[in-house]
Amino acid sequence: MKRMSLSILLIIFFCVTNVMASEEVLIARVNDWPPFYFQQNGEWVGISIDFYRALSEESGIKMEFKERPWSRAMLDMKKKPIIIGQLALTEDRKKIMNFIGPHSSEKMIIGINKKHLNNDIKNLDDLVLFSKKTGRLIAYQQDVFYSKEFNDRINTGSDFSEHFEKKASYNTVIKMLEAGRISGFLEEKTTLIYKLKYEQKSDIVVIHPFVIGSSDVYFGVSKIVSNKTLKKLHEANERLQSDGTYKKIMDKWSD
């Protein structure tokens, strides 16, 4: 009887161990990009952090936050079980990742000096004319999807790209604009509103009403992640959309 009980316990132990070993843990990519990701009292917080946590809880898939610059995250995407939030869906990205979502949307806009707010900018050609008129370049960031038209033109047309300045980091663009070194900079609208309200208050920088691009955003998931895990993520995402959880998260950060 004792031998039978011991055998049963061993079977249960190995079954539980195998189940635990088979559970995938996703690397949830984070980086310093308020209000989507930033650290507060040693903890990661932000819009995308709340999205990660909601998806993890609803799907039952564990996620571990790991800080990664974009280039490192793209390398990891090919060989590690990584998930990245707040991504526009593009054909190039579809080659290396699966997409879950959408979970929200974003607008790409231009920050300018308030004295230029009345400039009539309705399309990208007007944006080029604005750069010519002010005699200064417009800053943008590499590897960011602004719109299909913008990204196509910046990568293929020198007559267009010569009016724009590539910046590796956006930490200095507000000061550059205030100093008159650039005529404007491209940014995601929620990000710029947050920066101007909480981080770099400015009496000079305003948001022009012209929208460069608007798109849904998704979670990007490494293609090495199992179909079982992907199915759980898709189903959880649909529930979070339908029950209003994602909207509540956005409303929380819009206050």
From TrEMBL:
Keyword terms of this UniProt record: Signal
Domain Solute-binding protein family 3/N-terminal, first and last residues per copy: 24-255
Keyword Signal tagged: yes
Annotated protein name in UniProt: Solute-binding protein family 3/N-terminal domain-containing protein
Keyword Zinc: no
Pfam family, one: SBP_bac_3
Source taxon at top rank: Bacteria
UniProt cross-references to InterPro entries, sorted A to Z: Solute-binding_3/MltF_N
Signal sequence annotation: 1-21
